[in-house]
Amino acid sequence: MKSDVLDLCMVVNRTEALEAKVERLVTVISASAGTTTASVIPNAATSIVPGMAAVDVTKMTDKQSELVLAGRTYADFASSLEAGDFTVVEKKPKKKVPTSHHVLTGNGAKVSNTDQSKVKAVPRPKRLFAHVGRLHIDTTEEDLQSLLTSSRVLEPRCKKLKAKKGQVFTMAAFMVSCSVDSASVFYDKSIWPAGAELHDWYFRDRKIE
After folding, report:
1. For the chain, which end, N or C, has fewer CB atoms within 10 Å of the first or last residue's CB respectively?
2. Which of helix, strand or coil describes residue 200?
3. Domain stops at, among 43, 73, 88
4. What is the C-alpha to C-alpha distance for residues 104 and 158, in angstroms, rounded to an integer?
């Protein structure tokens, strides 16, 4: 069968299935005519959507009840609703818990030699390492090092990353390092080409001096 004919057949099948469901629903509603209106209406009619209103099915008018019991569509039921049939539900925003974030580096000015022997700090690496990507494929290590030197980055080192077997790079990526004294310049986005991306290098099971 052609695709357009197959689509038409699927629509017909779904329509027939929908009609069968509607007929069964009408039968159930007719059998439940003696019960309360709230038990006839599906739960979907009382669902609450944040920022919108919800229908109170326990306060339906006689006209709305007749529409439902007669098996009319939900659109007919919705068109019969009035402003008094809705209850506005307000959603209060969640309170944000204030958090404090402090970063400091100890200088050991008031720590005695005895305390230093028990509690010692691990100094940060003497160099900063980062992954620099999304550069033009023709960019060389010398080009990138020259850029950092002209930007007054101290002791820059650049190593171009090579593709593994089976991989093909369409952009150049580098492992770049420099002196920690150049941190403010190294992490200044204005010295990097537009579109380039820099991420701190992640070392696994390896000590950096």
Report:
1. C
2. strand
3. 88
4. 30
The token pair that represents 208 in the structure block: 């950096």
Residues 103-127 have pLDDT tens digits of: 566 777 777 766 556 777 776 667 8
18 plus 77 within the same structural domain:
yes
Consecutive H or E run containing 27: helix 3-31
CA–CA distance, 171 with 42 (Å, rounded to integer): 57
Do 79 and 152 belong together in one domain? no
- What one-letter code names the amino acid at 89? V
Tens digit of each residue's pLDDT (9 = 90 or more) over 118-174: 777 776 667 899 999 999 999 999 999 999 999 999 999 999 999 888 888 899 999
HEC readout, 102-139 = CCCCCCCCCCCHHHHHHCCCCCCCCEEEEEEEEECCCC
pLDDT confidence of residue 32: 56
- Short-list 134, 141, 173, 140, CA closest to 157: 141
H helices present in 32-80, as ranges: 37-40, 62-69, 74-79
Q: Which residue has the tokens 């979907």?
A: 44
Question: Could you tell me the residue range of the domain that residue 66 belongs to?
Answer: 3-88
8 Å CB contact between 126 and 177: no
